[in-house]
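Why do we bother with holo predictions? Because pocket geometry can differ from the apo form. Keep that in mind while you read this record for fe (ii) ion.
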Amino acid sequence: MSRKVSALDPGKVDVHARNVSFDWRNTPLHWMALDPVASHLISALTLLLPEGERMFCAAFTEALPLIADEKLREDVLGFIGQESMHARTHDKAIEEFLEGNGIDVRPFVAHAEYIFRTILGPRTELGPVAQRQYLLERLAVISGLEHMFAFLGDWIINADLERFGADPAMLDLYRWHGAEEVEHRNVAHDVAEYFDMSYTRRNLAMVIAVFSLLLFLIRGAKFLTHEDPALDKPGYPRMLWRIVGSMRRGALPSFSMIGRSLAHCLKPGYSPEVVGNTAQALAYLATSPAARAAAS
Ligand SMILES: [Fe+2]
Ligand SMILES: [Fe+2]
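The structure, written out:
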Protein backbone atom coordinates (compact mmCIF):
# COMPACT_ATOMS: atom_id res chain seq x y z
CA MET A 1 0.00 0.00 0.00
CA SER A 2 1.38 3.39 -0.92
CA ARG A 3 1.50 5.98 1.80
CA LYS A 4 3.42 9.15 2.54
CA VAL A 5 6.09 8.57 5.17
CA SER A 6 5.03 10.16 8.45
CA ALA A 7 7.13 12.96 9.94
CA LEU A 8 7.51 10.72 12.99
CA ASP A 9 8.77 7.80 10.91
CA PRO A 10 12.37 7.02 11.89
CA GLY A 11 13.14 5.73 8.36
CA LYS A 12 15.67 2.93 8.02
CA VAL A 13 16.58 1.35 11.36
CA ASP A 14 19.11 -1.23 12.50
CA VAL A 15 17.57 -4.64 11.90
CA HIS A 16 17.95 -7.35 14.53
CA ALA A 17 16.11 -10.53 15.48
CA ARG A 18 13.78 -10.42 18.50
CA ASN A 19 13.19 -13.30 20.82
CA VAL A 20 9.50 -14.30 20.94
CA SER A 21 7.48 -16.87 22.81
CA PHE A 22 4.09 -18.13 21.61
CA ASP A 23 1.68 -20.76 22.84
CA TRP A 24 -0.94 -21.97 20.34
CA ARG A 25 -1.91 -25.19 22.08
CA ASN A 26 -5.41 -23.83 22.73
CA THR A 27 -5.85 -21.99 19.43
CA PRO A 28 -8.77 -23.41 17.42
CA LEU A 29 -8.38 -24.34 13.74
CA HIS A 30 -10.81 -21.54 12.83
CA TRP A 31 -8.59 -18.98 14.52
CA MET A 32 -10.84 -16.29 13.09
CA ALA A 33 -14.03 -17.86 14.42
CA LEU A 34 -16.33 -15.81 12.18
CA ASP A 35 -14.34 -16.37 8.97
CA PRO A 36 -12.96 -19.93 8.56
CA VAL A 37 -12.01 -19.29 4.91
CA ALA A 38 -9.83 -16.29 5.79
CA SER A 39 -8.40 -18.32 8.71
CA HIS A 40 -7.33 -21.07 6.31
CA LEU A 41 -5.94 -18.75 3.66
CA ILE A 42 -3.73 -16.96 6.18
CA SER A 43 -2.78 -20.32 7.77
CA ALA A 44 -1.60 -21.43 4.30
CA LEU A 45 1.11 -18.78 4.72
CA THR A 46 2.34 -20.65 7.79
CA LEU A 47 2.70 -23.80 5.64
CA LEU A 48 4.77 -21.90 3.08
CA LEU A 49 6.90 -19.55 5.15
CA PRO A 50 9.42 -21.84 6.91
CA GLU A 51 10.72 -23.28 3.62
CA GLY A 52 10.56 -19.91 1.85
CA GLU A 53 12.35 -18.01 4.57
CA ARG A 54 15.07 -20.65 4.86
CA MET A 55 15.65 -20.18 1.11
CA PHE A 56 15.88 -16.39 1.67
CA CYS A 57 18.52 -16.99 4.38
CA ALA A 58 20.50 -19.40 2.17
CA ALA A 59 20.56 -16.97 -0.79
CA PHE A 60 21.52 -13.99 1.40
CA THR A 61 24.25 -16.05 3.09
CA GLU A 62 25.57 -16.84 -0.40
CA ALA A 63 25.42 -13.13 -1.36
CA LEU A 64 27.10 -11.86 1.82
CA PRO A 65 30.76 -12.45 0.78
CA LEU A 66 30.05 -10.46 -2.42
CA ILE A 67 28.87 -7.36 -0.48
CA ALA A 68 31.60 -4.91 0.51
CA ASP A 69 29.33 -2.14 1.88
CA GLU A 70 29.54 -2.45 5.70
CA LYS A 71 26.06 -1.03 6.47
CA LEU A 72 24.41 -3.30 3.90
CA ARG A 73 26.29 -6.30 5.32
CA GLU A 74 24.90 -5.46 8.78
CA ASP A 75 21.38 -5.15 7.35
CA VAL A 76 21.74 -8.50 5.56
CA LEU A 77 22.89 -10.18 8.78
CA GLY A 78 19.95 -8.64 10.66
CA PHE A 79 17.60 -9.76 7.88
CA ILE A 80 18.92 -13.34 8.07
CA GLY A 81 18.47 -13.27 11.87
CA GLN A 82 14.85 -12.10 11.59
CA GLU A 83 13.89 -14.46 8.76
CA SER A 84 15.38 -17.51 10.47
CA MET A 85 13.44 -16.64 13.63
CA HIS A 86 10.25 -16.29 11.49
CA ALA A 87 10.89 -19.71 9.92
CA ARG A 88 11.42 -21.39 13.32
CA THR A 89 8.33 -19.72 14.77
CA HIS A 90 6.06 -20.79 11.88
CA ASP A 91 7.49 -24.32 12.21
CA LYS A 92 6.27 -24.26 15.82
CA ALA A 93 2.87 -22.97 14.63
CA ILE A 94 2.63 -25.89 12.18
CA GLU A 95 3.32 -28.30 15.01
CA GLU A 96 1.24 -26.77 17.82
CA PHE A 97 -1.61 -25.19 15.89
CA LEU A 98 -2.11 -27.15 12.63
CA GLU A 99 -0.92 -30.62 13.62
CA GLY A 100 -2.29 -29.99 17.11
CA ASN A 101 -5.71 -29.53 15.49
CA GLY A 102 -5.39 -32.84 13.61
CA ILE A 103 -4.22 -31.57 10.20
CA ASP A 104 -1.77 -33.77 8.29
CA VAL A 105 0.30 -31.01 6.72
CA ARG A 106 2.88 -33.24 4.98
CA PRO A 107 1.32 -33.35 1.47
CA PHE A 108 1.22 -29.57 1.28
CA VAL A 109 4.56 -28.88 2.99
CA ALA A 110 6.11 -31.27 0.42
CA HIS A 111 5.06 -28.77 -2.32
CA ALA A 112 6.78 -25.93 -0.46
CA GLU A 113 9.91 -28.07 -0.09
CA TYR A 114 9.90 -28.82 -3.82
CA ILE A 115 9.57 -25.11 -4.75
CA PHE A 116 12.17 -23.76 -2.33
CA ARG A 117 14.66 -26.65 -2.17
CA THR A 118 14.52 -28.12 -5.69
CA ILE A 119 13.50 -25.17 -7.91
CA LEU A 120 15.07 -22.30 -5.92
CA GLY A 121 17.66 -24.11 -3.80
CA PRO A 122 21.47 -24.00 -4.20
CA ARG A 123 22.87 -25.47 -7.45
CA THR A 124 26.43 -26.45 -6.79
CA GLU A 125 26.80 -28.07 -10.22
CA LEU A 126 26.80 -24.65 -11.98
CA GLY A 127 29.99 -22.87 -13.07
CA PRO A 128 30.95 -19.49 -11.49
CA VAL A 129 29.23 -17.30 -14.13
CA ALA A 130 26.01 -19.32 -14.09
CA GLN A 131 26.16 -19.44 -10.26
CA ARG A 132 26.19 -15.65 -10.11
CA GLN A 133 23.29 -15.32 -12.55
CA TYR A 134 21.32 -17.90 -10.61
CA LEU A 135 22.02 -16.04 -7.35
CA LEU A 136 20.80 -12.79 -8.94
CA GLU A 137 17.58 -14.52 -10.05
CA ARG A 138 16.94 -15.70 -6.50
CA LEU A 139 17.73 -12.26 -5.06
CA ALA A 140 15.25 -10.74 -7.55
CA VAL A 141 12.55 -13.20 -6.45
CA ILE A 142 13.26 -12.35 -2.79
CA SER A 143 13.10 -8.63 -3.50
CA GLY A 144 9.67 -9.06 -5.15
CA LEU A 145 8.30 -11.27 -2.38
CA GLU A 146 9.63 -8.91 0.26
CA HIS A 147 7.59 -6.10 -1.29
CA MET A 148 4.49 -8.26 -0.95
CA PHE A 149 5.35 -9.29 2.62
CA ALA A 150 5.80 -5.65 3.64
CA PHE A 151 2.43 -4.85 2.05
CA LEU A 152 0.78 -7.79 3.86
CA GLY A 153 2.56 -6.88 7.10
CA ASP A 154 1.26 -3.33 6.92
CA TRP A 155 -2.21 -4.66 6.14
CA ILE A 156 -2.38 -7.04 9.11
CA ILE A 157 -1.05 -4.46 11.58
CA ASN A 158 -3.92 -2.18 10.55
CA ALA A 159 -6.75 -4.64 9.76
CA ASP A 160 -9.51 -5.00 12.34
CA LEU A 161 -9.46 -8.80 12.53
CA GLU A 162 -10.69 -8.74 16.13
CA ARG A 163 -14.20 -8.23 14.75
CA PHE A 164 -13.94 -11.70 13.15
CA GLY A 165 -13.13 -13.19 16.55
CA ALA A 166 -9.38 -13.55 15.87
CA ASP A 167 -7.46 -15.61 18.43
CA PRO A 168 -5.07 -13.15 20.16
CA ALA A 169 -2.03 -15.49 20.11
CA MET A 170 -2.39 -16.27 16.40
CA LEU A 171 -3.05 -12.64 15.49
CA ASP A 172 0.08 -11.66 17.43
CA LEU A 173 2.12 -14.14 15.33
CA TYR A 174 1.10 -12.45 12.08
CA ARG A 175 1.37 -8.92 13.46
CA TRP A 176 4.82 -9.53 15.01
CA HIS A 177 5.96 -11.10 11.74
CA GLY A 178 4.27 -8.38 9.67
CA ALA A 179 5.82 -5.61 11.75
CA GLU A 180 9.31 -7.06 11.24
CA GLU A 181 8.57 -7.34 7.50
CA VAL A 182 7.77 -3.61 7.50
CA GLU A 183 10.88 -2.93 9.58
CA HIS A 184 13.25 -4.74 7.18
CA ARG A 185 11.39 -3.93 3.94
CA ASN A 186 14.32 -2.01 2.45
CA VAL A 187 16.95 -4.74 2.80
CA ALA A 188 16.16 -7.02 -0.17
CA HIS A 189 15.55 -3.96 -2.37
CA ASP A 190 18.90 -2.48 -1.28
CA VAL A 191 20.61 -5.79 -2.09
CA ALA A 192 19.02 -5.82 -5.57
CA GLU A 193 20.24 -2.25 -6.14
CA TYR A 194 23.72 -3.13 -4.85
CA PHE A 195 23.99 -5.89 -7.47
CA ASP A 196 22.81 -3.36 -10.08
CA MET A 197 19.85 -5.51 -11.02
CA SER A 198 17.96 -4.37 -14.10
CA TYR A 199 14.38 -3.09 -13.91
CA THR A 200 13.24 -5.94 -16.16
CA ARG A 201 14.92 -8.72 -14.19
CA ARG A 202 13.66 -7.45 -10.85
CA ASN A 203 10.09 -6.78 -11.88
CA LEU A 204 9.63 -9.87 -14.02
CA ALA A 205 10.80 -11.96 -11.06
CA MET A 206 8.46 -10.01 -8.76
CA VAL A 207 5.37 -10.50 -10.95
CA ILE A 208 6.04 -14.24 -11.35
CA ALA A 209 6.81 -14.64 -7.63
CA VAL A 210 3.75 -12.73 -6.44
CA PHE A 211 1.34 -14.56 -8.77
CA SER A 212 2.88 -17.88 -7.67
CA LEU A 213 2.43 -16.84 -4.04
CA LEU A 214 -1.26 -16.02 -4.60
CA LEU A 215 -1.88 -19.34 -6.40
CA PHE A 216 -0.07 -21.18 -3.62
CA LEU A 217 -2.19 -19.49 -0.94
CA ILE A 218 -5.46 -20.23 -2.76
CA ARG A 219 -4.34 -23.85 -3.15
CA GLY A 220 -3.38 -23.92 0.53
CA ALA A 221 -6.75 -22.53 1.60
CA LYS A 222 -8.45 -25.26 -0.44
CA PHE A 223 -6.15 -27.91 1.06
CA LEU A 224 -6.93 -26.83 4.64
CA THR A 225 -10.66 -26.54 3.88
CA HIS A 226 -10.65 -30.13 2.57
CA GLU A 227 -8.74 -31.31 5.66
CA ASP A 228 -11.21 -29.49 7.93
CA PRO A 229 -13.95 -31.88 9.14
CA ALA A 230 -16.27 -28.94 9.91
CA LEU A 231 -16.38 -27.67 6.30
CA ASP A 232 -17.57 -29.05 2.95
CA LYS A 233 -15.12 -29.82 0.10
CA PRO A 234 -15.45 -27.06 -2.53
CA GLY A 235 -13.75 -27.08 -5.93
CA TYR A 236 -11.62 -24.11 -7.05
CA PRO A 237 -14.48 -21.91 -8.41
CA ARG A 238 -16.47 -22.11 -5.16
CA MET A 239 -13.29 -21.73 -3.07
CA LEU A 240 -12.33 -18.62 -5.01
CA TRP A 241 -15.81 -17.19 -4.60
CA ARG A 242 -15.59 -17.69 -0.82
CA ILE A 243 -12.16 -16.04 -0.71
CA VAL A 244 -13.55 -13.03 -2.58
CA GLY A 245 -16.36 -12.92 0.02
CA SER A 246 -13.77 -12.80 2.83
CA MET A 247 -11.94 -10.02 0.99
CA ARG A 248 -15.18 -8.02 0.68
CA ARG A 249 -15.77 -8.36 4.42
CA GLY A 250 -12.26 -7.08 5.13
CA ALA A 251 -10.95 -10.36 6.57
CA LEU A 252 -8.36 -10.53 3.76
CA PRO A 253 -6.68 -7.87 1.59
CA SER A 254 -8.58 -7.56 -1.70
CA PHE A 255 -7.22 -8.41 -5.16
CA SER A 256 -7.52 -4.72 -6.09
CA MET A 257 -5.38 -3.67 -3.08
CA ILE A 258 -2.78 -6.27 -4.06
CA GLY A 259 -2.91 -5.14 -7.71
CA ARG A 260 -2.46 -1.48 -6.76
CA SER A 261 0.49 -2.36 -4.54
CA LEU A 262 2.11 -4.35 -7.37
CA ALA A 263 1.54 -1.50 -9.84
CA HIS A 264 3.17 0.90 -7.39
CA CYS A 265 6.20 -1.38 -7.13
CA LEU A 266 6.52 -1.42 -10.93
CA LYS A 267 7.00 2.36 -11.11
CA PRO A 268 10.58 3.36 -12.00
CA GLY A 269 12.31 4.79 -8.93
CA TYR A 270 10.14 2.74 -6.55
CA SER A 271 11.31 2.67 -2.93
CA PRO A 272 9.93 0.25 -0.29
CA GLU A 273 10.13 3.14 2.19
CA VAL A 274 6.51 4.12 1.42
CA VAL A 275 5.10 0.60 2.00
CA GLY A 276 4.01 0.68 5.63
CA ASN A 277 5.26 2.83 8.45
CA THR A 278 8.35 1.98 10.52
CA ALA A 279 7.19 3.95 13.58
CA GLN A 280 3.90 2.05 13.64
CA ALA A 281 5.70 -1.29 13.18
CA LEU A 282 8.13 -0.51 16.04
CA ALA A 283 5.25 0.60 18.25
CA TYR A 284 3.55 -2.75 17.67
CA LEU A 285 6.76 -4.67 18.36
CA ALA A 286 7.18 -2.79 21.65
CA THR A 287 3.79 -4.07 22.83
CA SER A 288 3.62 -7.49 21.12
CA PRO A 289 2.58 -10.03 23.80
CA ALA A 290 4.96 -12.66 22.34
CA ALA A 291 7.95 -10.29 22.42
CA ARG A 292 7.11 -9.20 25.98
CA ALA A 293 6.62 -12.82 27.12
CA ALA A 294 10.09 -13.74 25.81
CA ALA A 295 11.66 -10.70 27.49
CA SER A 296 10.14 -11.43 30.92
FE1 LIG B 1 9.65 -13.11 7.39
FE1 LIG C 1 11.06 -10.48 5.11
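Residues 202 and 295 are 39 Å apart (CA to CA).
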